[in-house]
Write a structure and sequence with these properties.
The protein is elongated. Helix 7 packs antiparallel against helix 8 and helix 8 packs parallel to helix 15. About 35% of the residues lie in helices and about 15% in strands. It is α/β, with parallel strands linked by helices. It folds into two domains: about 170 residues, Rossmann fold; about 150 residues, Rossmann fold (3-Layer(aba) Sandwich), CATH 3.40.50.1980. It is built from 15 helices and 17 strands. The strands form five sheets. A five-stranded parallel sheet has the order 7-6-5-8-9.
Amino acid sequence: MKARILLLIWAVLVAVMPAFAQESVLGNNLTDDCVTEFDPETDYFPEKVDVNDAANFSVEYFNNYKLVTVTGSTETYTYALVQCGTPAPEGDALPEDAQIVEVPAGGIVTLSTTYLPGLAALGLVDNLVGMDSFLYTSTPEVLERIEAGDVIEVAPAFELNTELVLATEPGLVMTDDYDPGRITQLVDLGIVAAVNTDYLEQTPLGRAEWLKYIALFYNAEATAEEIFSEIASAYEEVTDLAASVPEEERPVVLWNSYSTFAEAWSIPGSETYSGYLIEDAGGIIALGAEAGSGSALLSFESVYDGALDADIWVPGLFAINSLEDILALDARYEDFIAVQNSEVWNYDLDVNANGGNNFFELGVLAPHLVLQDLVAIFHPDLLPDHEFTFFRRVEPAE
């Protein structure tokens, strides 16, 4: 009798051991391995992300897949990220146009430098197999991988070469949606086109939170949550510091410059990326009332009449070395108070030899560093020992 009971106990243990083993593996997301024995009752993504600041992507979790939705400028894109080693959902479980991606996704090709700091922060640079151009990146880990010959340049002449993309055998290509035809071209070739519309986000933290979007393709949610939490905390800390400044001590900040191409001066409103940065840093947007919550395109004359006395000017110009370079564009700039007081600041401190600007690369992932720069410009007494990351004062020529 005793032997029979022991035999039954052993049989039960043998039966449940695989379940225990599977459960022990799934204390964390599988970032390197595939499932070997599928259990439909198991949650294969115990580590999840919450999307709170970004408005243009969302994720819904199911036991063995994640349904990710991206809002583009004209279309919506859907992705079913299926844990490798488990079956893809069938029938009506997915929208008709959903792209199915096995995760972790493997190799990635990026068509914008914006995504590279996120890959580096998540420890995923070894997955980078291709990128549009080698010229403009500033991310050290990516430069090392390029130097080692581990990355293919897939748009060397600024035109996507799909044969080169196919040669990388990517798990996905991450791209913006400026050219819908490019997305269609990739999908028709059987390549996952993971659309990233971080540029549509209106808030600095909203753009930074797209780190989590990248992480979803690699089951790296836990790392992404930790990194973003640190970024958000640092941003809020600087915002709180600037919030202590009385209204009467806040400088009026003129942003951007006149574009001869657009024949307009783009003035950010309070609910835009630049607008949030200015206000969070303790500044007042010059002509902000004209822009409202969006952006306003004004004539040079309108800005000249309404913002001549702005305390600080951030022109956002390229290839500008001195105030003389700015005045060469239009002599009327000399009448601006910010020019006369040498309070002209440009976000081109960290630009590589080919013109790649780290403000548009690291600055997207690290808005707290951008904000620190702006607080040091607007209220230097609050950060007296600050070392600038992106901004520099535009000085007169020597």
